[in-house]
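Let us work through a complete example step by step.
Step 1: write down the sequence.
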Amino acid sequence: MVSVISSVTGVDTVDDAEAFASIEALADKLQHDAFRSWKPSGDLPPAAPLAMPEQRFDRCDARAAVVGPSGMTLRRAALVGGAGALGLLAASVLMQSLARDGFEVRDVVLLALFLPLFAWLAFSCLSALAGFVSLVMGRREDLAAAAPGRLPLGATAVLVPIYNEEVGAIFARLRAMSRSIASAGGAGLFDIFILSDSRQENHAAEHAAYLTLREANSVPIYYRRRPMNHARKPGNIADWVRRFGGAYDYMLVLDADSLMSGEAMIRLAATLDRNPQVGLIQTTPAVLGAASPFARWQQFASRFYGPVASAGLIWWSGAEATFWGHNAILRVRAFAESCGLPKLTGPEPFGGHIMSHDMVEAALLRRRGWATHMMALDHGSYEEFPPTVVDHAIRDRRWCQGNLQHLRLLGSAGFHWVGRMHLLMGASAYLTSPLWLLLMAAALAERLHGGLAQLTAPPAWLLGLTAALLFGGKALPLAAAALDRGRRRDFGGWRGIAASMAVDLPLSVLMAPMMMMNQVIAIIDILRGRPSGWPPQRRTSDGIAFVDAVSHYRAHLGLGAVLALIGLVDAAAACWLAPVSVGLIGAPILASATADNRLGDRLARLGVFRTPETPPAGAGQPIRAPRPDPRRPAARGGQPASVTSSWHSSLE
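Step 2: predict the structure and record it as tokens.
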């Protein structure tokens, strides 16, 4: 924890870090002084307009070739061909067994569901395998990255779109980042823009915090609030480009929960200097600041399993990498000429403004001749994660709607085939959930007709292959840790890794049916024509009451009960239905338990889900919020200050 605070803020000791004022105290002060200190105007630099025309998906007037890394065709052919071959191999074994009693329509349905799901599983594992080999051989990406410490030539705007966020937390991160930029030597090269889409009632507190931050800051900081949240985040970014984009070479786009070090920002901008054909560099942010067991679990997964998966994605993406919408740097003029998003025809949820804009913008940049790359930074790029599975489902529902919109754009003129694959993969991340549910239903139907009872046992090699594909994404990072003593030490040594994985593996099995059902319900809602909207995201939580969890997961409980009853009357089916039924019936318990910050603290003290940003128990006193004032109501978070909240240097 302290090491990350030091790397981002320049503070070197626990005593210095503990001297920081808490976010809760800052937010309280800002709310108290908001209406006294708020004054409009004087918050923006001179206008520097830049045209950003709307693009068309039915035609592409200007195309240019992109010179990508060598050997990329062979890499992609090996990956896609290997996944397809493994899928066909497994499907052929299943088909031979099904054909023993005659091949019927239900058998065709079963195979049609099984083949793409197995191939998708194989693709994910083979990609991770490529990432593992890439890491072991010391090759991370095919982009000519600038040397650390090299200052960029171009001017960069750091864009931070916000929408009804907790004022203290967001401005604490801004303060930490501005200090880090200055300490890294980038004070004259970076400007920060706070692009607010918040409601009127939030404006005064935001503006008061902005004025306080601006007074004692060496990096220029500007604040702009739009009175209407038109086109949501992409509309917010486009408004900035059209008003101020002409004054900047690059724009570094963050989310409200993003945090980047000044060293990382400088290196990204200098890398764009060095690669004039590149229009986008997407980093792979690590999860940080987790308190609840659910968020700590995801933080561990992102830090332990993530590097192997990211290296695999970089290995085959090349100059056609995707965009995740934050913690990325873009060439402003390339973005302006390529990425003006039109409004899709028809009503929401499939029409209207494009919600998952990022992948579409990457495809649009690529079709105009700009390379898009992904870059794995060892440190310096972070984001937070929803504190509970319920909050994750709310965010996931919005992403589901946006990614399903991409199905309309697969045939867009001029898109590179890898860009289309990224769009399809984004939609498939949600479509696989109903496919798994349908596959389970088809298998049950086959058994009711006696088909599965007639199946011969699959060959041992196929069972082994299936197990390898299922658990390869976890086994390969474990192998990477075995080859890297420093990496093992970061996660608490073999004892810490074993403790974390002992919780991670059963939790993954139990959580998977709940996540599947959440996505199935989201897709049903979308098909019913119910748009998700864009509700403010909750960043902290004081837990979920069990009664509330039961209310959230009624559908899960119903399906789980049905599967459990089937298992009671069919012993053979019970073996493969049990993990699903137990996960669904236990959904309220899992949701409530994994939202309990006290349990998260206990896991941390035991060394479970330790990451490089979390010190082991006893290694140093964790930074905590001050004792609450009895005259104040308790903060909604009700938890110790996280790493992110500890990055607040006094703004008073």
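Step 3: interpret the result. The radius of gyration is 25 Å.
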